[in-house]
Amino acid sequence: MCKNPVNTTTPPLVIQTDVTLAGLELGLLTMRKGEFSRFLFQPQYAYGDMGCPPFIPAAAVILYEVQILDFLDSGQVDDFIAMSPEEQNTLPLSTVLEVVDTLRSFGNRAFRQSRYDNAKDRYKQASMVLSNRDTPSDAETEKIRAVLLPLYLNLSLTELRLERPHKALKYGNKALEIDSANTKALYRCGQAYLELSEYESAQGCLIAAQAKKPFDSDINNLLRRVAICYKDSLDEQKEMYSKMFSSLRAK
């Protein structure tokens, strides 16, 4: 839900926390995603007999127009986070995966709104929920690794958006530990190495990705960019050494 219909990047409101009008909270609980509603609230469900001077007069009847643009149920997540680690580990994996999926959805929404720090926190929280699970069986381990892979890819991309290539590389490598041939992970590592000016490593990752997807325009374009940057770097080094040796000969 959005406070301002023009501003779609407003952080979501949390029912029972951000919504302070009793009538509005009751109304929101009756709505579905995408629905537009009008609510007419009597004073006891709005601002009461006192109103809210100077904007809301005493005993005012309030008309609200509301549209639910998006909705995520955080109740299960809140309950899970409130548990001790021992209690969390008693829950079935299916419940834990539902919590992780909700956290990832929150992260995706924040990422789409360019709130990258918030997105990173949600993705990291989701990955920690899985990583902290005690002694899973082999079958659970495979399920956990399958869910961790896209989380690490999301974290790597988010860290790139935050201009933190070292951390982007860290999560890209975590993804490769799960799937060494994953083209997205190889691409993310290539991006991170490029930002770190480690051109040979960037080429290695991108060539491996290109072998899996030879016609992928993003991979091919980034490979060309790495090659140009690498050549420019070598030319700069050559010029620097040339000047250094010329100076030594002059002495």
Automatic annotation (TrEMBL):
EC number: 5.2.1.8
GO MF, one annotated term: Hsp90 protein binding
Family to which the UniProt record says this protein belongs: Belongs to the FKBP6 family.
Group of enzyme by EC: isomerase
Annotated PPIase FKBP-type domain residues: 1-72
Catalytic activity annotation: [protein]-peptidylproline (omega=180) = [protein]-peptidylproline (omega=0)
Record carries keyword Repeat: yes
Keywords of this entry: Isomerase, Repeat, Rotamase, TPR repeat
Annotated Gene Ontology cellular component terms: cytoplasm
InterPro entries registered for this protein in UniProt: FKBP6/shu (IPR042282), PPIase_dom_sf (IPR046357), PPIase_FKBP_dom (IPR001179), TPR-like_helical_dom_sf (IPR011990), TPR_rpt (IPR019734)
Protein name: peptidylprolyl isomerase
Entry's Gene Ontology BP terms: piRNA processing; spermatogenesis
Keyword Nucleotide-binding: no
Native species: Liparis tanakae
